[in-house]
Design a protein that fits this description.
Length: 240
C-alpha cells in the first residue's frame, strides 16, 4: 500500500533522514520506534507531504502510495483523493470550537452531499467521552479527550490509511490503553495504520511489524513478536 525507498530529507542544510526504506501492507499496523530525534516524526511529515517551512524537505528517494508518487502529489490531494490522514504530535485541535465543530471541519474534502451520520456514530462508539462532550468547547477537554478528538478528526477525513504521531503522549495509563483499544478496533475494521509511538513496549504489542530508527537511519526491522525478544531492543526500549 505504501512503499518508501531511499528517502533522504533535510531541514535547512541538515540531513535528518539518510536514505530510509520501508513499506506498509494494506491492513497492517506498522510502527516506527526510536529515541527522540531519530527521525520518526520527520518520516511521517514527509509521507504526508507537509510542506516547508513547517515540514521537512525531501532531497532524494521515492514515496509510492498504491502506485502513485506522493512526492509529485499536492498535499491536499493526499487527503481528498488518496484517503491518507496524519494525526500529528501535539493534537492541534481548535480550542475555541466545540467537539462537533472540530469534527465537521475535517470533512471539508468530502463530497458535499455525503451522509456522514454513520461515521459520527462510529466515532462516538469508539470514544464515548466525546459524545458526552460533543457540544463543549474543545479547550475544556482533558488531555486524553483532546487526543481522542485529534484522532477522530483525522478519521472524519474519510481516510483508509492513518498516520499517528505519538497518540499516547501525556495520557494517563488508563486512557492510553483505551486509546490503543480503539485503534485496534479500527485496524480490525480494515484501517491501515503507520504509528510513531514513544511507548515502545505498547507499540510493539499493538503493531504487526516495526522499524527501529536511529539518527535518521533504519537499524532493525521485523515482526514485532521477534523484535520484542531482540537483546538490543530489550536493553534500549523495554528495560531488559
Amino acid at each position: 500500500m505504501l512503499s518508501v525507498e531511499n528517502l533522504k530529507v533535510k531541514y535547512g542544510n541538515i540531513e535528518a533522514l539518510h536514505g530510509i526504506s520501508f513499506h506498509v501492507n494494506e491492513g497492517e499496523v506498522v510502527t516506527l520506534i526510536g529515541a527522540n530525534g531519530a527521525g520518526k516524526s520527520t518520516t511521517l511529515m514527509s509521507v504526508a507531504r507537509l510542506p516547508p517551512p513547517e515540514g521537512p524537505r525531501v532531497t532524494e528517494g521515492e514515496v509510492l502510495f498504491q502506485g502513485k508518487n506522493l512526492l509529485k502529489t499536492p498535499a491536499h490531494e493526499v487527503v481528498s483523493k488518496l484517503k491518507m490522514a496524519l494525526c500529528p504530535e501535539g493534537r492541534h485541535i481548535f480550542g475555541n470550537l466545540t467537539v462537533m465543530e472540530n469534527l465537521k471541519l475535517a470533512t471539508y474534502s468530502r463530497n458535499p452531499g455525503e451522509n456522514l451520520e454513520a461515521e459520527y456514530r462510529h466515532i462516538f462508539d469508539l470514544f464515548p467521552r466525546l459524545h458526552e462532550r460533543r457540544h463543549q468547547r474543545s479547550e475544556s477537554l482533558s488531555g486524553g479527550e483532546q487526543q481522542m478528538l485529534a484522532v477522530s478528526r483525522a478519521l472524519m477525513t474519510g481516510c483508509k490509511f492513518l498516520m499517528l504521531d505519538e497518540p499516547s503522549m501525556g495520557l494517563a495509563p488508563l486512557l492510553m490503553y483505551d486509546m490503543f483499544r480503539a485503534l485496534k478496533r479500527l485496524n480490525q475494521g480494515g484501517m491501515t495504520i503507520l504509528l510513531v509511538e514513544q511507548n515502545a513496549k505498547l507499540a510493539l504489542q499493538f503493531a504487526h511489524r516495526a522499524y527501529v530508527l536511529d539518527t535518521g537511519a533504519i537499524r532493525l526491522e521485523g515482526p514485532c513478536s521477534e523484535l520484542m525478544d531482540h537483546p538490543d531492543i530489550k536493553k534500549a526500549y523495554l528495560g531488559g
